[in-house]
Task: inverse folding
């Protein structure tokens, strides 16, 4: 028997091992709802495997899949008692995409498919409602032309607007059957003009083109961008759902809407949604008519409202999660068209997780899994200062679609937001309404402001998913995108002017409002405490200053995993001494320069120990290529030459002699200590003396410095540097009379170190994976240049995501796992951590947990994310 590519809703549902993977999120939800007896219109799902096959077959739907689709159409006909393509009793369907994870950038929906002139006439007769029949028909042509064929939708909108103007009406619903019939003719003419062929009349061809369009929408530039942003594999593919139409546009006892079982912005436990009478799906999200709050439904159709609320509660109980539902009311009867776990803001996610736990609906562990670690990022950034906010007067307000503080220069186009971000500036994207193409611009903005659209509009949904501040549907806002300015209640704001958006109230302000750092309180604190109860991985931070260290401790860090000593060298008062050290000709000169640095380093470390109190601190010895510290501007070179008492020519010659072709693979890391042992001596002295000084005041902190040697690739090299450290440290400790303990460990950053980890562990008392360098050296990609060419790797689907941001588990991960095992074969209690950038990235954190690392270390602002990610990892890998 050939493979099954198409499933009727609920067909073989219990036999499918992983419904979401095969049927996509939407398909699985529809199948599940059908099997639970919820009112779902009949339909079928073309699987994600059919999509993968479509691409494997060179963008063709194989005959056997076409056959299976047509078989299911027949099943649909039998179930519904209607016939696809039959003017006497027509079956119209919707075609919708649905990947494993909902992707708002993909093709969404084509409604009323399976219609043509003859069928529209038949539908008019059968329903006795020609207005409805021609409204459905014109909608189909409009959507098909836009999403299936890719014609410019604004041309069709313009024709619709002209028709309304001609008839002297403002709303689509005011157009008569005759008007709509004329509109159909105009739309078809437009289609022919642009496409160069007649509008397709054959329902079967319409259906297959619709399915193909969904498959193609998996592979657009914006879909690729979305996947890269979220680490979704290209191989997954999308499913297609074909479903019998339930009509919300048959009159005033019909309607359609979108609703969440709880408020997706605040998390409040109250149904939250919008709907429109006499309308179809897109009307609610498109922002053409202003939708009504779902509460209004209770007034006119109390039974339907109650039915819907009960359904929502049941679904929530069933899925143990907040649901995002689409529904249609046809002649006073409720139909459910979709349910899925709803996207929500971080604030709402925390509220819902805590509430559902308190309601006894979920366990603590399930509650933790309801909050995405990466989402917390939006809560860790500054919020507007309450006093500054109170003092400011808003110039207008829209809907508070996604909370947060968004301030920056106004831009009107996605590209301009990207350009500003690249220039290190902040942008606020202002649009009439957003569409999927704007996703890159939204990602690169501080906030989004739109004139159209409700709380469930594209802008609102996507912004909430990204944790971006968004104010949507500001009625008074007049946006002139081409002319690059907007007007709001008498104010004119041009591109480049600064505005501030408060996503929690919807208020819009001119200028920049002061912001304050975030704090972990309330629900956030509660969830973080639960995370700490279940995680086994420790979370440390990468911090080079007492200020960063204190911030990290506030965010829950349990130690410093990486203190980069060179960052302290760049400060104005010490760069001179550093430069002096570098250009020294003799060891004496170098020692003299190092002696100037010693007190400064010592006081730096005293500050760090004091900030970290009882928590462990790992200090990494000097790492970068020395030329990074040298002056490049002529005036600085002249000044330095005078300072050092050498000629400018001599200094130029020294600088030239330090030039390296591949500095990242050059004279750096422990190689500096091999050539200039006096550097390691000075740094050891600073680390140990600082620890002794602080211990004298605070013996209860029990400080045990961890000295980390970077870029080791050879056991003897490790021993060489360690011997220097031990000799100096032991002498100082003996003299001090303080019983200070310390450890000497290494970073594993070079593949050779991973290969020889068992031998290196004979000397090293701990390991920390420097996955920035380990990625660089394993791939052979320069970490400073790779971004320039990696884009081509993403668009050609060679890599899904940046290996410097998310660990390459297959390659670099294999080295991490192997080196950990080898290291512990020598030293069973070897403490192993990671301090590369990937240490704060949730998927990488899960991997580090699985391979048995003791801790991850990340920047202070990612500490809470890592805490939750570590809890997720512990729960998922029990
Ligand atoms: C690393 O290489 O992963 C690391 C943490 O060190 P640095 O980024 O300073 O090279
Ligand atoms: Mg490194």
Result:
């Amino acid at each position: 028997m050939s493979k099954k590519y198409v499933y009727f809703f609920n067909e073989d549902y219990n036999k499918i091992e992983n419904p979401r993977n095969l049927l996509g999120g939407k398909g699985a939800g529809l199948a599940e709802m059908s099997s639970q007896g919820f009112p779902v219109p009949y339909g079928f799902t073309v699987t994600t495997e059919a999509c993968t096959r479509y691409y494997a077959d060179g963008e063709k739907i194989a005959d056997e899949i076409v056959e299976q689709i047509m078989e299911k159409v027949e099943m649909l006909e039998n179930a519904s008692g209607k016939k696809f393509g039959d003017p006497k009793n027509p079956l119209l369907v919707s075609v919708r995409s649905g990947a494993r994870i909902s992707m708002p950038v993909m093709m969404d929906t084509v409604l009323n498919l399976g219609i043509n002139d003859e069928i529209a006439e038949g539908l008019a007769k059968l329903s006795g409602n020609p207005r409805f029949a021609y409204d459905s028909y014109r909608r189909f042509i409009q959507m098909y032309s836009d999403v299936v064929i890719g014609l410019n939708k604004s041309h069709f909108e313009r024709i619709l607007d002209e028709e309304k103007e001609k008839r002297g009406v403002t709303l689509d619903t005011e157009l008569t059957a005759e008007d709509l019939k004329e509109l159909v003719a105009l739309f078809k003419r437009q289609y022919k003009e642009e496409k160069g062929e007649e509008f397709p009349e054959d329902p079967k061809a319409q259906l297959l083109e619709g399915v193909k369009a969904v498959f193609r929408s998996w592979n657009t530039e914006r879909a690729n961008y979305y996947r890269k942003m979220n680490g979704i594999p290209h191989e997954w593919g999308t499913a297609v759902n074909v479903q019998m139409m339930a009509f919300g546009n048959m009159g005033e006892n019909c309607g359609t809407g979108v609703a969440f079982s709880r408020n997706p912005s605040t998390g409040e436990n109250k149904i939250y949604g919008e709907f429109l009478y006499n309308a179809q799906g897109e009307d609610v999200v498109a922002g053409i008519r202003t939708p009504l709050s779902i509460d209004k439904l209770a007034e006119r159709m109390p039974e339907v409202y109650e039915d819907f609320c009960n359904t929502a509660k049941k679904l929530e109980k069933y899925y143990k999660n907040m649901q995002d539902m689409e529904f249609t009311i046809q002649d006073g009867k409720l139909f459910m068209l979709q349910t899925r776990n709803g996207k929500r803001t971080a604030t709402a996610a925390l509220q819902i997780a805590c509430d559902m736990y308190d309601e006894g609906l979920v366990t603590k562990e399930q509650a933790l899994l309801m909050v995405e670690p990466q989402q917390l990022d939006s809560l860790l950034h500054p919020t507007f200062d309450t006093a500054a906010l109170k003092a400011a007067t808003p110039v207008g307000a829209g809907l508070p679609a996604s909370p947060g503080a968004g301030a920056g220069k106004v831009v009107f186009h996605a590209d301009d937001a990207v350009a500003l971000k690249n220039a290190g500036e902040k942008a606020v994207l202002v649009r009439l309404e957003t569409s999927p193409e704007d996703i890159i611009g939204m990602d690169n903005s501080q906030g989004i402001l739109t004139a159209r659209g409700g709380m469930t509009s594209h802008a609102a949904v996507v912004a909430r998913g990204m944790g971006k501040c968004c104010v949507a549907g500001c009625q008074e806002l007049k946006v002139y995108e081409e002319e690059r300015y907007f007007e709001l209640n008498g104010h004119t704001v041009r591109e480049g002017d600064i505005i501030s958006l408060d996503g929690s109230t919807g208020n819009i302000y001119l200028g920049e409002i002061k912001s304050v750092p975030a704090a972990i309180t309330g629900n956030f604190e509660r969830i973080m405490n639960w995370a700490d109860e279940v995680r086994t991985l420790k979370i440390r931070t990468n911090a080079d200053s007492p200020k960063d260290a204190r911030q990290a401790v506030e965010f829950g860090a349990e130690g410093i995993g990486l203190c980069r000593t060179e960052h302290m060298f760049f400060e104005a008062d010490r760069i001179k001494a550093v430069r002096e050290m570098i250009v020294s000709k003799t060891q004496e000169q170098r020692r003299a320069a190092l002696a100037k640095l010693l007190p400064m380093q010592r006081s730096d470390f005293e500050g760090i120990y004091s900030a970290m109190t009882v928590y462990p601190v790992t200090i990494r010895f000097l790492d970068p290529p020395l030329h990074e510290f040298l002056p490049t501007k002529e005036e600085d070179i002249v000044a330095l030459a005078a300072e050092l008492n050498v000629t400018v020519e001599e200094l130029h010659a020294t600088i030239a002699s330090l030039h390296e072709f591949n500095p990242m693979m050059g004279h750096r890391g422990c190689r500096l200590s091999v050539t200039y042992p006096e550097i390691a001596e000075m740094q050891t002295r600073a680390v140990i003396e600082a620890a002794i000084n602080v211990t004298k005041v605070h013996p209860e902190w029990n400080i045990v410095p961890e000295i980390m040697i970077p870029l080791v690739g050879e056991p003897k090299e490790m021993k060489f540097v360690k011997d220097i450290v031990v000799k100096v440290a032991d002498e100082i400790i003996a003299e001090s009379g303080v019983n200070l303990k310390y450890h000497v460990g290494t970073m594993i950053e070079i593949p050779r170190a991973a290969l020889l980890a068992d031998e290196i562990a004979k000397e090293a008392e701990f390991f920390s994976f420097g996955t920035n360098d380990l990625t660089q050296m394993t791939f052979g990609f320069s970490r400073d240049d790779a971004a320039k060419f990696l884009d081509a790797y993403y668009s050609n689907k060679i890599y899904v995501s940046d290996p410097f941001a998310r660990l390459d588990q297959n390659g670099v991960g294999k080295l991490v796992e192997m080196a950990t095992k080898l290291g512990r074969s020598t030293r069973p209690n070897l403490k192993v951590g990671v301090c590369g950038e990937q240490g704060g990235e949730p998927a990488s954190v899960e991997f580090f947990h699985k391979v048995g690392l003791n801790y991850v270390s990340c920047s202070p602002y990612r500490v809470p994310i890592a805490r939750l990610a570590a809890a997720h990892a512990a729960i998922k890998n029990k």
Remarks:
- The mean pLDDT is 92.
- The pocket of phosphoenolpyruvate (ligand 1) is lined by residues 562, 564, 623, 749, 770-773, 835-836 (CB under 6 Å).
- DSSP finds 36 helices and 31 strands in the chain.
